[in-house]
Amino acid sequence: MGSSEDGVYQPILQNNEATLSPQSSEKQNESSNKLEYILSDPTLPVLKRFRLATWIELKLIFLLAAPAVAVYMVNYCMSMSTQIFSGHLGNLELAAASLGNTGIQVFAYGLMLGMGSAVETLCGQAYGAHKYEMLGVYMQRSTILLTITGVFICFIYIFSKPILILLGESPRIASAAALFVFGLIPQLFAYAVNMPIQKFLQSQSIVAPSAYISAATLVLHLLLSWLVVYKIGLGLLGASLVLSLSWWIIVVAQFVYILKSERCKYTWAGFSLKAFSGLPEFFKLSAGSAVMLCLENWYFQILVLLAGLVDNPELALDSLSICMTVQGWVFMISIAFQAAASVRVSNELGAGHPKAAAFSVVTVTWISIVISVIAGIVVLALRDVISYGFTDGEIVANAVSDLCPLLALTLALNGVQPVLSGVAVGCGWQTFVAYVNVGCYYVIGVPLGSLLGFYFKLGAKGIWSGMIGGTVIQTMILLWITFRTDWNKEVEDAMKRLDKWDDDKRKPLLKK
């Protein structure tokens, strides 16, 4: 956009700037205001309006999504590399690490991520409304609640072996998986601290520092994993302990950044006793968020657990875990766009920009779809060689190749569904979407998958096919709801929500 066009919108930017923004976000706020003005300007031709708005929105989205992809990808690579190190110890170790990582650890991750999305909604909308001082309070409240939750989840980790056996898993695999899970207990509490910190930073469009921290930690993680697993010989337990240590390094580094960075000086005012007030009400909001995202994160993990009940469970677990690992890797791209959608929508609603919020939804959804479809095509092209990065077994490679068409379809769906979930988080629709997820995933998807997999003897392919059906229905419902959204009403709802959660109903900390 040329300088002459920029000059046209300076008056409206000055009039709309009700409060002083942190210096690091002045350009972002300016672009946001400009986007709403362009979309609301009836004097501009439609095509020009679309061109200008698209250019602004693309810059805002990629400012968020590009480093977020790096953060999620690197963090996922740590878990994936741990699984690879374990897999090269043997097929039993691969199955155990897969079951522990995908069946138990992801349970905790899904719960923590879900509860953390409450602070994502509040921080994003508060930041858009310039109520900067509340972001640090929200982050501390969420950390307290997630840490308490972690204490209760810890019992699942401790008793993982009898739980897995009760669910019908092989005692041999369950025993090895339990050993792996014991080493992940410290990681559980790292999640409890990291999720609120991550949402706190993302809501301010501060993502690049987390990417640098995660990348440096990954290098250290690979070195320590090689040393502990192969040279010291601690095996599965050593692999999971190193993974826990790596997550705590990320947590500490990010918090040090918050303390030292000028970009957070208005949103982090230090530890506050206000973090302990209103915890029951905050828990209710977090619980609704947890149900929504947990049901999504656990859905395809049930596929792995069910696979342990079919004939030849070790082969089924090995092949499915490889596919789920690849799916999870690509999903990191989708979840980065989910984060971008959540931040963009919540910021725009908090700022009172309904048209910009709606335009952000459309733009980020199309970008995510294109990338996910390309990923699906790549997977189909490499279907015969993907498994050799995890294990040397030819039988497993053939099984993975047979499942790749379903994997490619799942990747394509991931271009839409996570972004719509991000929109739901940005708007605060978590409770409603939780009901949709229950119906589509657990009333339709899981029973249909079980029917195809066990009754019709289609095995892992049948289970996966049925569960994809549930995802398709859920995606269609969310598309319809999003399409019919009244964004002016969403702005009003956002303002009411901020008034409710601003304890003192104080004016913004920073005034013009």
From TrEMBL:
This is Protein DETOXIFICATION. Coiled coil: none annotated. PANTHER family: MULTIDRUG RESISTANCE PROTEIN. It is a multi-pass membrane protein. CDD domains: MATE_eukaryotic. One of its GO terms (biological process) is xenobiotic detoxification by transmembrane export across the plasma membrane. One of its GO terms (molecular function) is xenobiotic transmembrane transporter activity. It comes from Escallonia rubra. Keywords: Membrane, Transmembrane, Transmembrane helix. The chain crosses the membrane at residues 52-74, 144-167, 173-194, 206-228, 234-259, 289-310, 322-345, 357-382, 403-426, 432-456, 463-483. One of its GO terms (cellular component) is membrane. Belongs to the multi antimicrobial extrusion (MATE) (TC 2.A.66.1) family. It is found in: Membrane. It comes from the Eukaryota.
